[in-house]
Structure prediction request, 364 residues.
Amino acid sequence: MPFTPRTQALPATVPFVGPEALERRLGVRFAARLGANESVFGPSPRVLDAMGEAARESWAYGDPEHFELKAALAAHHGLESACFVAGEGIDGLFGLLAQLTLDPGDQVVTSLGAYPTFNYHVTGHGGHLDFVPYREDREDIDALIERMRLTVPKLVYFANPDNPTGSWHDSASVERLMDAVPHGTLLVLDEAYSDLAPASALPPLQPLRPNVLRFRTFSKAYGMAGVRVAYAIGAPDVVKQFDKVRNHFGLSRIAQAGAVAALADQAYLRQTIARIEAARERLAAIARDASLRPLPSATNFVAIDCGRDGAYARRILELVLAQNVFIRMPGVAPLDRMIRVTVGRDEDLDLFGTALRHAIAQAG
Prediction:
């Protein structure tokens, strides 16, 4: 076969098993979908109208330069359009970044248990992953800085707020990490949950740093996970490198129109954030009522410490799934003592609360 040895050595897998795949495997239909960190509250009605109108024009390709979307992002963030690149979700942009930066064997630093799709792209492009453990259920900034100093990797990944724990660091700590990035290293700052974070967690966008790229998405608070649209923010000389490899027609007319409309309806975003925060509090209360410990969260999910080891948490997970409620858990110890539950509507959380109580009773 014509595939490279590296390609042939890779497993044919995906970083996350989708709920649809689990339904097929288990022969069930989930009654509550609380595992993929989507927003069940959905997008703004303006977004639906804009995407419906764009759908009628779907015979034509979308704008390959994303002119209106980048102009809207520029106005929203107070930067120039040249500071943005848009793509098919943060995952798609991570794949392009790996293609742009990594030669086989290049070092990449991340946290052990952090977002696995980033690792998937690094491995697929031949990069070597170097892991730093979490400390007290948060990514360890001091350890990341020390590892950067010792190894001078091509990329360093850091999420704020974090998935899978929901934790966050304040902006001063993140800026300390930015200041420590050595020459020749690029900091990959994943801010997928930035719309849900406290303002104190987000460093100012300016001044732009040539060794930092910040990634944001419409999949979470904006409720557009199925549309696949996200963007990276960076210095123009850095951002323009994506034009060398990106799929110029990959972002559909529907996606572009929806994202522009979403930015224009900040009132709806504020309402959604309030609903997410209320549901997050209820999820935490459900966990405490079950004598489990919910971690503080600045995201649209709550990580729940099941109090024992990974085997026990996986048993809880499987028993909840068996009751047709979709949730997930971290895959790496010691984070795998937790389950991770996305916020939902009242009826979704009712189902989860019942399923959790039954799971704990059966798990022993």
